[in-house]
Amino acid sequence: MTLDFGVVWARWPELLMGLGGTLFLALSGMILALIIGVLGVAIRRSHSRVGSALVIAFVELIRNTPFLVQIFFIFFALPLAGIRLNPTVTAIIALGLNGGAYAIEIIRGGVESIPKGQTEAGLALGLKPGEIFRKIILKPALRAVFPSLASQFILLTLTTSIATSISAFELTSVAQRIDGDTFRSFEVYFTITAMYLALSWFIMSLFALISRAAFTYPTR
Amino acid sequence: MSTIGTPELLFLLRGLGWTLALTAIGFVGGIAFGLVVALVRVARRRWLRTIAAAWIAIFQGTPLLMQLFVVYFGLPLLGVTVPAWGAVAIALTAHASAYLGEIWRGAIQAVPLGQTEAAHALGIKYRSLMRDIVLPQALRLSLPATIGFLVQLLKGTSLAAIVGFIELTRAGQIVSNQTFKPLIVFGIVGALYFLLCWPLSLWGSRMERRLARDRR
Amino acid sequence: MLAKTTLTAIAATLALSAGLSTAADARSLEDAKASGKLIVGIQADNCPWGCLGSTGEAQGFDAAVARAFAAHLGLEAEFVPMAVANRIPALTTDKVDVLIASLGITAERAQSVQFSQPYAENTLFVTAAKSTDLPDLASLAGRSVGVPRSTPMDTILTAEAPPETRIQRFDDDAANIQALVSGQVEAVGSNQFYIQRLEAARPGEYENKFPIGALYQGIASRLGEADWNTAANEFLDAFIGSDAFDAAYAEWLQVEVPQLPDTIDGVSFTVARQ
User: Fold this and answer.
1) Gyration radius from chain C CA atoms
2) Domain C123-214, CATH 3.40.30.10 — does that match?
């Protein structure tokens, strides 16, 4: 058996569309994860005991079960409870919930690293609690945890490949179609593995740019 | 319509056994090769460091699912015939070696440089410096992250289901299709993973807190 | 630094891909006879064709055929469970000796594997809830239709359904059926056995709407390997029409034994002589 990459590369327009699908899932998932992360931390820092407990339970539940099981549960089991979402929406929600649970822990770590004195200084300056959380706590905290958050989001990007199991459109699903037509499994998966590698490099560079643009003010 | 009884639960538990076996193989293999990757990553020769960095970048920059596919379909092209579980175990081992290698590189470099310099001044050889001074400290520093990755790996074995290997998740799919009770079946499967992963996660965060306290 | 490393990695993997081109050692019939085992790829969850019982042993019509084939060769059958989409790759990459995995004989697949003469028939349908109005292919426009990825249901519907049809591809029949039952798709491309399984899940709710084709299943071996192909055809010559064959058909497929075709367009059942 010899290798033939030609039949795979001939399908480049589909591969590019698939890459677009992957990028869409990844970016939407990241935005949702970030929102869940910030909300979760806000709830945990509020004085609601019940809220805190729910957030902790959510984080532990998500972080200790596989993504594949989570996405199967949302797609195949939730319809029995009357919640039916299409594959793309299911994938984004599953990615957002999964990434969000990790984001909560990461951002919380950052927030706790902000010295108490900073909050007190904010109070002394007459800032409202909301303003203090946003300007004095959240922004420096995000800066502190940006590298961890970035690697978590790279992981989220790679996780999108699992969405093929619920028939969502992304790069892996395109690869499986090409595999189904050509039976060139190794060549197909080798090619898209390289594409994923390029994609994570691209997103990493994107994060580096964001970091430079958003967090330029002096740290000390 | 069949219900979920003892045979179905036993089938799930057999899947669970395979999940544990795959995790154990991947973790033990990952520890052995990960140590090599970490040491090569901090080697004195630049080209060695580049090779280790590329190895890490490949495995951290591509989906585990693709790594499984490439190994599963690629090994036979190299003339190596292995059963499905073997291909999955090899892929998981390589995956783990990259992640653990990177975790331990960080830990090795977190050991203060002054100690290395002091060792040089005392004429201690590289091998002894690593074995007796740097690695023991690095191991302690890296424990929380290492446990965290063990949880990640355990969950990652679920992807073997997609290449048709019957571990816990695939067993869940099969039972769900026989009984048409996905809510209960995936609930049970999720609970089984949780029961395995949660104690590990708790242990990991306790180690982390203890390290943070000691550092103060 | 990291970016540069990643680029090096990409370059390295691409270079590797250019250099990789070795022939694998496929197991011959002789090797199999020496080992005492026939390694058969079978479906894990597609009864009555092939599936695993709750204790993990292979069951179904394909398993019965495989055991008879192994006995014919004086070997013991060892089963490797497969998902739908990795059946052919598993064969071409030497994970199994032959596939007896409800693999329908098609001209496209014959480019990649060597089929034996057919040993069973499988009729394909579009299946949906009784309340869904679906008289023909044209009425699929705008609807979501599930298919198991890379199967003839996928190929036929992709080619023949209106372009507005939303075709959703799942890993296997199991997931496809699950998607219909949980209402994630309005209809599915199915085979003659879906309806039995759907009846078990939700009695009286689903029906076959219209047929989209018939498939004949063959034993697949690797291209050019005459030893396996000849053995499979010789076995089927003796097996088809025997009491054991009729009994297996009645036990698992529960339909009349059909007249199996002698030829299928674009497919040769024997390895061409060079």
Assistant:
1) 21
2) no
Q: In whole angstroms, what is the distance from residue B134 CA to residue B125 CA?
A: 12
pLDDT of res. C54: 63
CA atoms within 13 A on the CB side of C95: 28
CATH 1.10.3720.10 fits B6-215, yes or no: yes
Q: Chain A contact for C35, CB < 8 A?
A: no
* pLDDT, greater one: B7 or B64: B64
Residue range C106-135: mean pLDDT, rounded = 93
Asked if the structure places residue A188 within a domain, the reply is yes
**Per the domain annotation, does A55 fall within a domain?**
yes
pLDDT value for B97 = 96
Q: What is the ipTM of this complex?
A: 0.85
Tell me which residue range forms the domain holding A60. Answer: 20-212
pLDDT in tens, A142-185: 888 999 999 999 999 999 999 999 999 999 999 998 988 887 88
A60 occurs within a structural domain: yes
The average pLDDT across C56-68 equals 91
- Is the pLDDT at C7 greater than 60? The verdict is no
Give me the percent of chain C exceeding a pLDDT of 90.
55
CATH number of C29-122+216-253: 3.40.190.10
Contact C52 B54 (CB under 8 A): no
- Between the alpha carbon of residue C175 and those of residues A137, B6, C5, C171, C214, the distances in Å are 46, 23, 40, 6, 22
What pLDDT, on a 0 to 100 scale, did the predictor assign at position C239? 94
Which of B80, B177, B181, B186 to mutate: most C Cβ within 10 Å? B177
Dmax of chain C from CA atoms?
A: 71
Subunits touching C (CB < 8 Å, at least 3 pairs)? A, B
Q: How does strand C76-82 pair with strand C50-52? A: unpaired
Which of B46, B167, B174 to mutate to test binding with chain C, by most C CBs within 10 Å of its CB? Answer: B174
Rounded CA-CA distance C217/C102 in Å is 6
What residues does each domain of chain B span? 6-215
Give C89's contacts in chain B (Cβ within 8 Å).
73
